[in-house]
Design goal:
Chains A, B: Its main location: endoplasmic reticulum. Chains A, B: InterPro entries: CPQ, Peptidase_M28. Chains A, B: Homodimer. The monomeric form is inactive while the homodimer is active. 2 copies of one chain form a homodimer. The first copy, chain A, has 2 domains: 257 residues, 3-Layer(aba) Sandwich (Aminopeptidase), CATH 3.40.630.10; 157 residues, Glucose Oxidase, domain 1. With 467 residues, chain A is α/β, with parallel strands linked by helices. Chain A is built from 13 helices and 16 strands. Chain A is elongated, with a radius of gyration of 25 Å. The two termini of chain A are 41 Å apart. At the A-B interface, α1 and α13 of A face α1 and α13 of B.
């Protein structure tokens, strides 16, 4: 009896000790996360950094002078944040320039109607006098192929499949439509088209044309054809007019040009880990943007949120156990050269990345994370759900993390993307209205706090489930 | 053995039948909810209704001609939606008018700085030449009381406690600050103040003054003093100037006036339930708005979402088991007369309301519901979580549902408020920028679908856990 009671007592004690340890750990983590959100909502720099990036520097297309200004500005700001080291990584990037503002009109019998277009990134120019031709509307690359050379030759192909409004997540609607923009010119050229016009990747009807990357793939340069995006309202109008006059003509003129690659930079800030300096956790976004606006959502927001993660840690005196790197990647939009260069240097240095987090889905209210990892790692991260609940972070799903961290290949690395509310993202994406005033200060700050919280939880708890 | 086996078989069969019944039910509900979201995102009328309400009718303060236009417009639209009956409920409402645009300036020695203000709803006017006096800044009603008559008499009291940015939900920050607006004039008058200026209920710094209800309570009319809101930037400036010159003066002029009550209306549309016509489920928002803007978020969004619930049911051919009423309440903003009248008539008719849902927190991305009910009812609604997850509806919490449904007293009634993302709500609330272009079409439609889904699930599954 005595022994049994003693054993019972011991077990009770162990349970109590374990329980209080657990409670203690929980409480400390909960406290820290509360402090993280408080710091971000009351004492952050991210909004004023974004103000500067957007309103003082402006659009930051790879190879532009303003992209380099952004490199110097963020480097200088990072140097105030108590990193052990802030440095640049040299990377050659493509340089494409839009040139003069594009013009376009529909010529229906003798009536001209101007419509808003913009050249797609990487497109060639039209001739100086512009390009005019009959139009053939298609809903897909498959429909294009089915029509074949007979129907396509000499014409402008008009891709008009809308993003699917039934999708709940706007990124799914984007994935389902963007092949028209990326591959449209290359495929149409194979059937003798003289140009392509693509309905903007936008879920709403408005007058903004949305640019974005396109690729001629490996077709010969002589077969490159000019390609542009048309606003959704413009696309609706063109389609309507084609229904009553299939012989109408479309005119457009653009003077964009591809130049030789130029030298640019990733910006990196590093804090050495106190316990595992060889284990690296990356948090980042991309410095470059398209040229039509400030790129405040894409991806000014991700840049300043990543910097804010370290600003929060500094304000709270938190010393990470693992090495933390803020990486501001160059050239996500039209080449991914920054992401590839970062991985190339990481491999050369035999580095071990355990975690990478990217914010490149806009500065909207954070909802959760999209994770690339195995099931055990997913379960570990999903176990943080309760801690995140008071901050309305509910959505932990497997899926695409971020383009810039895509090239990372460390064994067992977990990659995560911040998942903000996606409904308004494609109202602004790659268009002239992606400006500072489209970003809400609190939504931006909540995103930064959510990123800092996950970085903190993984720094504290580890993520390598195979140890 | 045989009997045993037979029994075993029977049990297996029962389990199989129950399982397939459960699966069948689940699958049908899931299918229906998918159709609800699809209908709202691809075939809804709510955005064009809101366009009309905001851009053709405009602001709808109780007692105004435009409020009555909104009554007639929504009644006419509801008559196209296949209700069994659409009717008006007469209700007497207060009529307060702003009059001329207010003016205000800080007089610091001889330098005048204009600042944006607006009279608070229900305030009296200043004299025709305006009011000028020294200012005393306080952070709370408690600080006011501690200062007392000696310090307050003859002065303008300036309430400047900001909404608390640490709060994750902006409504919590609002609750923590709004006593200054609602009770500020009444309390300051008791200590001999000649007027009050209240920092706008706004989490960000900008130039919009935000109006809203205030009350003189039961102090004698002779002691009423004029009260106005100042923009957050204006409040910061006034506070800064007071620090260097506590003797500066503040001038403001407003010509608002309270008139006799006038006749107005709630708009009601009713579909008789096929199985339980005596059990009533209400869905609604409020038709009136403040006068400074279109009131697109507050509460045009809630009005058109409530109507859309029935439009969705009509499009999908869904016949509710319980009686469904869309109620567009009048006078939520400065009297709640519509909500009280609805309940008064409901009591007179001995009606039984089992459920009421209000949308009055803006047309932003829906996040969940705030519920007033007992634990068993809460558990029943929380059991729908899985069905809502694909639509990113995660947040089911106990809390305030809606003001207009507040007066309802049916036994065992469950009250719910749609909970949209709250971060941007107070950027617009009661201010001149609460306009149509501040509402995103998809966010509005997702809100309507979320409301329709909960109405459907409760209609199907019931909610009275005490039967």
């Amino acid at each position: 009896m005595i022994i049994k009671n003693l054993m019972k007592k011991s077990i009770v004690s162990v349970v109590l000790v374990l329980n209080s340890f657990f409670l203690f750990a929980q409480t400390n983590e909960e406290k820290m996360i509360k402090e993280i959100y408080k710091s971000s909502l009351t004492n952050s720099k991210c909004y004023s950094w974004l103000d500067h990036l957007s309103n003082q520097i402006g659009s930051r297309l790879s190879g532009s002078a303003s992209a380099e200004k952004a490199v110097q500005y963020t480097r200088a700001q990072m140097e105030t944040l108590g990193f052990d080291r802030v440095y640049l990584q040299e990377v050659m990037v493509p340089k494409w320039m839009r040139g003069e503002k594009e013009t376009a009109y529909i010529l229906d019998n003798k009536s001209k109607t101007n419509v808003p277009i913009c050249a797609l990134g990487g497109s060639i120019a039209t001739s100086k006098s512009g390009l005019i031709a009959e139009v053939i509307e298609v809903q897909s690359l498959e429909e294009l192929a089915a029509l074949g050379t007979d129907k396509i030759k000499g014409k402008i192909v008009f891709y008009n499949r809308p993003m699917d409004n039934e999708q709940i997540e706007s990124f799914h609607a984007y994935s389902g439509a963007v092949d028209q923009r990326y591959d449209g010119a290359k495929e149409a050229s194979k059937f003798g088209a003289v140009g392509t016009i693509v309905r903007s990747m936008n879920l709403r009807l408005d007058d903004f044309p949305h640019t974005g990357a396109q690729s001629y793939g490996d077709i010969p340069k002589s077969q490159y054809i000019p390609t542009a995006a048309i606003s959704t309202n413009g696309a609706e109008l063109l389609s309507k007019k084609l229904k009553s006059n299939s012989k109408l003509k479309f005119y457009f003129k653009q003077s964009c040009e591809q130049f030789d690659d130029v030298l640019s930079h990733n910006v990196v800030g590093e804090i050495k880990g106190t316990e595992h300096p060889d284990k690296i956790m990356v948090v980042g976004g991309h410095l470059d943007s398209w040229d039509l606006a400030d790129g405040s959502h894409d991806d000014g927001a991700g840049v300043v949120q990543s910097m804010e993660v370290v600003n929060i840690f500094k304000n709270l005196g938190y010393k990470p156990k693992n090495t933390i790197r803020v990486v501001l990647f160059m050239n996500e939009e039209n080449g991914l050269r920054g992401g590839k260069k970062y991985e190339e240097l990481s491999l050369a240095n035999n580095e071990n990345h355990i975690f990478a987090l990217e914010s490149d889905s806009g500065g909207f209210s954070p909802r959760g994370f999209s994770l690339e990892c195995d099931d055990a790692q997913f379960d570990k991260i999903a176990s943080f759900t309760k801690v995140f609940e008071p901050y309305l972070i509910h959505s932990f799903v497997k899926g695409h993390s971020g383009s810039d961290i895509g090239p990372l290949t460390s064994k067992n690395i977990v990659k995560a993307g911040l998942k903000p509310d996606s409904q308004r993202y494609f109202d602004y994406h790659h268009a002239a209205n992606d400006k500072f005033d489209a970003v809400d200060k609190r939504e931006l700050e909540l995103g930064a706090a959510t990123m800092a919280s996950l970085m903190y939880l993984i720094d504290q708890n580890g993520i390598d489930t195979k140890q």
